[in-house]
């Protein structure tokens, strides 16, 4: 599902396995397990990347829709949403700088996973950032929108959400989303490593870093309590059906 490599004062988390790295519960659990390993590490930085030509193609819709009944399908959607929201909270609270080295396509939830990092580098000749919900008939959850509002300029957000634009590396740099367009998957990772080493040298207090990040992203954190597009479980376990 993923591997975790330590290079001096850097951690490199690499998504492995299926070619498009769909965000099913198994992959998300694997990522969160890796994050728990590094949470107490001082003076370090995290880089997240993936094998192949995809960073992540978002939720594993095929897995959800293969459930034997409509209620079971809804249950799987809700489980993926809950786990991805938990992963987003983990990344936002991680006590170190975080960098996404986007080696290929990052769609929908995969795009959001990249945006949960402090910095984003993209491979120039392969891959794009893409909110696919409009094209496949799904509603963008409010917490997705909160993260987009935090990380994407307003006019670009309209382009991404209401035109389902596919942003190449150069387009993402021009629009203020990515730091740099890099040559090849290795070049993308190398650029992320160079920045990671530069940041780690500052030896910031990780808890202060995380608190400052949470302050800048408090609207996102507030939105993570529920996902209205897949229903909400109330304290009494009653299910409110999705607002679609």
TrEMBL record:
<keyword id="KW-0443">Lipid metabolism</keyword>
<dbReference type="InterPro" id="IPR001753">
    <property type="entry name" value="Enoyl-CoA_hydra/iso"/>
</dbReference>
<dbReference type="GO" id="GO:0004165">
    <property type="term" value="F:delta(3)-delta(2)-enoyl-CoA isomerase activity"/>
</dbReference>
<dbReference type="Pfam" id="PF00378">
    <property type="entry name" value="ECH_1"/>
</dbReference>
<dbReference type="GO" id="GO:0006635">
    <property type="term" value="P:fatty acid beta-oxidation"/>
</dbReference>
<comment type="pathway">
    <text>Lipid metabolism; fatty acid beta-oxidation.</text>
</comment>
<dbReference type="GO" id="GO:0005777">
    <property type="term" value="C:peroxisome"/>
</dbReference>
<dbReference type="InterPro" id="IPR029045">
    <property type="entry name" value="ClpP/crotonase-like_dom_sf"/>
</dbReference>
<comment type="similarity">
    <text>Belongs to the enoyl-CoA hydratase/isomerase family.</text>
</comment>
<protein>
    <recommendedName>
        <fullName>Delta(3)-Delta(2)-enoyl-CoA isomerase</fullName>
        <ecNumber>5.3.3.8</ecNumber>
    </recommendedName>
</protein>
């Amino acid at each position: 599902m993923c591997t975790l490599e330590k290079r001096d004062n850097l951690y490199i988390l690499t998504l492995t396995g299926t070619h498009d790295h769909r965000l099913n519960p198994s992959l998300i659990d694997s990522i969160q397990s890796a994050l728990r390993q590094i949470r107490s590490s001082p003076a370090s930085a995290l880089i997240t990347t993936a094998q192949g030509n995809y960073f992540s193609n978002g939720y594993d819709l095929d897995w959800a829709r293969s459930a034997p009944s409509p209620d079971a399908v809804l249950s799987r959607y809700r489980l993926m949403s809950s786990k991805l929201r938990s992963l987003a909270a983990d990344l936002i609270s991680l006590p170190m700088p975080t960098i996404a080295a986007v080696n290929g396509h990052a769609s929908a939830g995969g795009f959001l996973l990249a945006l949960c990092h402090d910095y984003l580098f993209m491979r120039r000749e392969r891959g794009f950032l893409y909110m696919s919900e409009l094209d496949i008939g799904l509603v963008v959850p409010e917490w997705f929108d909160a993260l987009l509002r935090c990380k994407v300029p307003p006019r670009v957000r309209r382009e991404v959400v209401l035109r389902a634009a596919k942003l190449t590396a150069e387009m993402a740099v021009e629009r203020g989303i990515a730091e740099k367009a890099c040559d090849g998957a290795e070049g993308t990772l190398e650029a992320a490593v160079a920045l990671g080493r530069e940041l780690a040298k500052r030896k910031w207090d990780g808890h202060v870093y995380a608190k400052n990040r949470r302050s800048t992203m408090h609207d996102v954190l507030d939105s993570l309590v529920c996902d209205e597009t897949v229903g909400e479980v109330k304290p009494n376990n009653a299910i409110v059906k999705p607002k679609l």
